[in-house]
Task: inverse folding
């Protein structure tokens, strides 16, 4: 059983993409893998809920020190997660813990935090799935890797959730 991070900025900008995120979570759970997210709203929460809808397990990795700070200071949800790990490392430290705890990463949409999560995954040779056409920075990430001066994790791109999850899981074997 592997741990798969689903990354995004925590905002649902497109209801259809939210449905695809939910589907991705369910597909990961059907293969008996665990979902990790940054314990935020948006597409990652939809993926966690999708995993739970299929009897899967979801873990949120929070930037906060405890549940009160998670809710009150960071304004993050607690529903949708079987457990939440409170890192007390802020967003930057949380992102390192989140990605390095995973076996693979799937990015849906994304903003600057997702770019950071992408670069951490890439530099740590993690398989990275990108849901193309999902908005945000997702379609820019392959070019960011190409502009780098070092090898990194395999980048898998697909607009199809089922194909994307299958290719990422195949890469883990």
Result:
């Amino acid at each position: 059983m592997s741990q798969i991070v689903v990354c995004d900025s925590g905002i649902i900008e497109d209801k259809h993409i939210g449905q695809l995120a939910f589907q991705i979570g369910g597909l990961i759970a059907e293969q008996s893998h665990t979902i990790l997210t940054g314990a935020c709203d948006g597409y990652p929460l939809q993926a966690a809920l999708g995993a739970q809808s299929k009897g899967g397990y979801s873990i949120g990795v929070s930037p906060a020190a405890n549940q009160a700070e998670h809710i009150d200071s960071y304004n993050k949800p607690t529903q949708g997660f079987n457990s939440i790990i409170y890192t007390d490392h802020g967003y930057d430290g949380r992102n390192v813990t989140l990605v390095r705890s995973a076996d693979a990463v799937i990015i849906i949409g994304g903003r600057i935090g997702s770019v950071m999560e992408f670069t951490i995954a890439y530099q740590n040779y993690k398989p990275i799935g990108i849901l193309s056409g999902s908005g945000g920075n997702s379609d820019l990430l392959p070019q960011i890797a190409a502009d780098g001066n070092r090898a990194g994790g395999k980048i898998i791109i697909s607009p199809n959730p089922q194909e994307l999850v299958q290719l990422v899981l195949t890469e883990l074997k």
